[in-house]
């Protein structure tokens, strides 16, 4: 008996081998099965395909008006800013902002009248109301975040500015989002 | 589930069955002869009420699911179809919607009962933690159920609550995208919420079984907060507690049916009868009443991540209650100071609920901050210190003595007095 037990201790048995081989195959199998179950939670092909670029004609948007549109299921504000609103957005000490960004970095050169930003509050996603709040940009009805005429966060719980979606001017009066 | 079964089937078929699956014996020992402390008051009837409400939600829910369509384009209309076209659809939907509120009324009473009488203390810590898990699952279930009618409150509630996860650094945005199955709350979100809303109540039922199993190891706590020692301290479950539970249940169900019959929309929001519109947020978005205290805590903190952590923390802290309360005396009846702090805590919790429905401005914000601080102080400062400084009142020697007075059992008094701490807890 003594000799058998030393043999088991020093030399791996068939059972040790089966245990490790089965365990390893099982672990790989579980990991490989888990992945599709996590991945299916993500955006599906149709949702991603809906992210194709959309064109938007700016001509009907009057000065001072804010228009809402959707891209990839996300709300976007197109705001035709007045000269006064532009001035207000530019005359801000950038360093004093919570999420410091100059107005010029948020619009296209020479197109300062067009502000295009995502329309969901960066706090918890509500739609802020236009032309409201102390900074004349937006105010969020949910927890009171206040954005200026550049869509930058000025007061309240939201941590960042309303982000600018990827877009470009395809002509003087037409933009392409995406 | 713990007492050895004395059950003997009467019929031959019963004997044949019992020797193959002893389930009748299990039920008999758990709910017929199970010895309960004889002094249980009506606050102990809410466990039975909760079990009833879970079954009521499952029955009404399964029926609703036969008529409901989980698709963003059709969901709202299918709920209106239930309300107008399906025979008694309005009744079944109102039973389900108000049933959720009744379920939460009962669970809050049940939790406060546990806090008042120290039911979370040894040897019932696992029982308590299972309860906290049930509470969490209930909140997840109710939240996802509220999304299903796809009204304005459904949509914006879903948006705000799922966005809470975006507060976590680095992985936050990815988590939210995977919760939504897209870039905003939309059809994929509604579909998965329906699937989970159907599943979770059955998971709750599973945890309830564990909860009752853990309960039947030591048996129920009781208003005196001392353990049962002799048979004199107890009464069999049936008929004493079956009747008591049934009476309380009938009164509770009358209140439930009163809501359903006379004010079926009182606890809801008119905005949820407007179909979801991703371009417009209602002016006042408020969660269902049972989430308001936690919502107030979220809004009290001016930082997004800290607000979210405080909200989750306010629930998580409950799980640690057995170790935060350092007093060995269970029942507040024998803890003169704790009893006062308990009521202060109730006032703070209800106050937070009231503030959660108010707009987040001015004095409301300040009040929410003070009550949030107090909420956490109760668990993290008051309870640990109280156990060290409070002098509890003298405990009765036994449950029988607590009920029947000194004469109840001379022997039990002597035995109990030697064990019960009558100095600092
Ligand atoms: C823990 C138990 C449950 C709770 C707390 C709960 C809660 C809720 C809530 C709050 C609503 C929204 C009611 C409204 O305003 O219209 C809802 C809707 C719904 N629930 Fe449940 N539920 C539970 C169990 C179930 C089960 C087991 C099913 C079975 C499939 C179900 C199916 C539905 C359906 C189809 C709806 C949408 C119809 C409607 O809005 O009335 N529920 N649930
Ligand atoms: S979602 Fe806008 S302030 Fe909270």
Automatic annotation (TrEMBL), chain A:
PROSITE patterns listed in its UniProt record: RIESKE, TAT
GO cellular component, one term: plasma membrane
Protein purpose: Component of the ubiquinol-cytochrome c reductase complex (complex III or cytochrome b-c1 complex), which is a respiratory chain that generates an electrochemical potential coupled to ATP synthesis.
One MF term in the entry's GO annotations: metal ion binding
EC number, UniProt record: 7.1.1.8
Subunit: The main subunits of complex b-c1 are: cytochrome b, cytochrome c1 and the Rieske protein.
Cofactor(s) the protein requires to work: [2Fe-2S] cluster
SUPFAM superfamilies: ISP domain (SSF50022)
Additional free-text comment from the UniProt record: The Rieske protein is a high potential 2Fe-2S protein.
A Pfam family this chain is assigned to: Rieske
Cofactor notes: Binds 1 [2Fe-2S] cluster per subunit.
Membrane topology: Single-pass membrane protein
Recorded catalytic activity of this chain's protein: a quinol + 2 Fe(III)-[cytochrome c](out) = a quinone + 2 Fe(II)-[cytochrome c](out) + 2 H(+)(out)
Start and end residues of each Rieske domain: 81-176
Location of this chain's protein in the cell: Cell membrane
Organism whose genome encodes this protein: Alsobacter soli
Entry's transmembrane regions: 17-38
Alphabetized UniProt keyword annotations: 2Fe-2S, Cell membrane, Disulfide bond, Electron transport, Iron, Iron-sulfur, Membrane, Metal-binding, Translocase, Transmembrane, Transmembrane helix, Transport
Protein's name according to its UniProt entry: Ubiquinol-cytochrome c reductase iron-sulfur subunit
Family per similarity comment: Belongs to the Rieske iron-sulfur protein family.
TrEMBL record, chain B:
Keyword Lyase on entry: no
Domain Cytochrome b/b6 N-terminal region profile: 13-224
Cofactor(s) required, per the database record: heme b; heme
Cytochrome b/b6 C-terminal region profile domain sequence ranges: 227-397
Entry binding sites for heme b b566: 110, 211
Topological type in the membrane: Multi-pass membrane protein
Gene3D superfamilies: Cytochrome Bc1 Complex, Chain C
GO cellular component, as recorded: respiratory chain complex III
Membrane spanning residue stretches: 42-69, 90-111, 126-148, 160-181, 193-216, 237-259, 305-324, 336-357, 369-389
Superkingdom to which the source organism belongs: Bacteria
Subcellular locations according to the entry: Membrane
Residues that bind heme b b562: 96, 197
Positions contributing to a ubiquinone binding: 216
Keywords, comma-separated and alphabetical: Electron transport, Heme, Iron, Membrane, Metal-binding, Respiratory chain, Transmembrane, Transmembrane helix, Transport
GO terms of biological process kind: respiratory electron transport chain
Pfam family, one: Cytochrome_B
Cofactor comment: Binds 2 heme groups non-covalently.
Function: Component of the ubiquinol-cytochrome c reductase complex (complex III or cytochrome b-c1 complex), which is a respiratory chain that generates an electrochemical potential coupled to ATP synthesis.
Family per similarity comment: Belongs to the cytochrome b family.
Record's subunit section: The main subunits of complex b-c1 are: cytochrome b, cytochrome c1 and the Rieske protein.
This protein's name: Cytochrome b
């Amino acid at each position: 008996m003594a000799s058998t037990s030393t043999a088991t201790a020093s030399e791996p048995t068939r059972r040790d081998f089966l245990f490790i081989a089965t365990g390893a195959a099982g672990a790989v199998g579980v990991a490989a099965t888990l992945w599709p179950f996590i991945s299916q939670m993500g955006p599906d092909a149709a949702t991603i395909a809906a992210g194709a670029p959309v064109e938007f004609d700016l001509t009907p948007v009057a000065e001072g008006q804010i228009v809402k549109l959707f891209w990839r299921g996300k709300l976007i504000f197109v705001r035709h800013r007045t000269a006064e609103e532009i001035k207000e957005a530019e005359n801000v000490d950038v360093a004093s902002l919570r999420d410091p960004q100059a107005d010029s970095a948020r619009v296209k050169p020479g197109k300062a009248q067009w502000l295009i930003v995502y329309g969901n509050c960066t706090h918890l996603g509500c739609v802020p109301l236009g032309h409201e709040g102390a900074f004349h940009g937006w105010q969020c009805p949910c927890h009171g975040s206040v954005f200026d005429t550049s869509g930058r966060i000025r007061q309240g719980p939201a941590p960042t500015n309303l982000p600018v979606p990827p877009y470009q001017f395809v002509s003087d009066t037409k933009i392409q989002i995406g | 589930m713990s007492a050895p079964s004395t059950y003997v089937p009467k019929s031959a078929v019963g004997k044949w069955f019992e020797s193959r699956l002893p389930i009748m014996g299990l039920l008999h020992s758990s709910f017929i002869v199970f010895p309960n402390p004889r002094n249980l008051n009506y606050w102990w009837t809410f466990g039975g009420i909760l079990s009833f409400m879970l079954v009521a939600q499952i029955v009404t829910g399964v029926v609703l699911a036969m008529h409901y369509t989980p698709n963003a384009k059709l969901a709202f209309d299918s709920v209106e179809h239930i309300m107008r076209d399906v025979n008694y659809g309005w009744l079944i939907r109102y039973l389900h919607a108000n049933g959720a509120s009744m379920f939460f009324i009962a669970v809050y009473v049940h939790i406060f009962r546990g806090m008042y009488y120290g039911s979370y203390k040894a040897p019932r810590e696992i029982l308590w933690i299972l309860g906290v898990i049930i509470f969490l699952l209930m909140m997840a279930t109710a939240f996802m159920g509220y999304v299903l009618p796809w009204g304005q409150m459904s949509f914006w509630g879903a948006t705000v609550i799922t966005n809470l996860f975006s507060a976590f650094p680095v992985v936050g945005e990815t988590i939210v995208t995977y919760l939504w199955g897209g870039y905003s709350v939309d059809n994929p979100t509604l579909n998965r919420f329906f699937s989970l809303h159907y599943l979770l109540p059955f998971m709750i039922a599973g945890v309830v079984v564990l909860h009752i199993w853990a309960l039947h190891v030591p048996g129920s706590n009781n208003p005196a907060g001392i353990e049962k020692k002799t048979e004199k301290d107890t009464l069999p479950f049936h008929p004493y507690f079956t009747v008591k539970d049934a009476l309380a249940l009938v009164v509770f169900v009358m209140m439930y049916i009163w809501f359903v019959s006379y004010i079926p929309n009182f606890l809801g929001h008119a905005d949820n009868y407007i179909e979801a519109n991703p371009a417009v947020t209602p002016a006042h978005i408020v969660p269902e009443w049972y989430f308001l205290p936690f919502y107030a805590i979220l809004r009290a903190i001016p930082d997004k991540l800290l607000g979210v952590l405080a909200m989750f923390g306010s629930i998580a802290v409950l799980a640690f209650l057995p170790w935060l309360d350092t007093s060995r005396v269970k029942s507040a009846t024998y803890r003169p100071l704790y009893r006062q702090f308990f009521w202060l805590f109730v006032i703070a919790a209800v106050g937070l609920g009231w503030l959660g429905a108010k707009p987040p401005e001015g004095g409301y914000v300040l009040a929410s901050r003070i009550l949030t601080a107090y909420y956490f102080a109760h668990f993290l400062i008051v309870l640990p210190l109280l156990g060290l400084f409070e002098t509890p009142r003298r405990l009765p020697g036994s449950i029988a003595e607590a009920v029947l007075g000194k004469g109840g059992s001379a022997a039990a008094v002597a035995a109990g007095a030697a064990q019960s701490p009558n100095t600092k807890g």
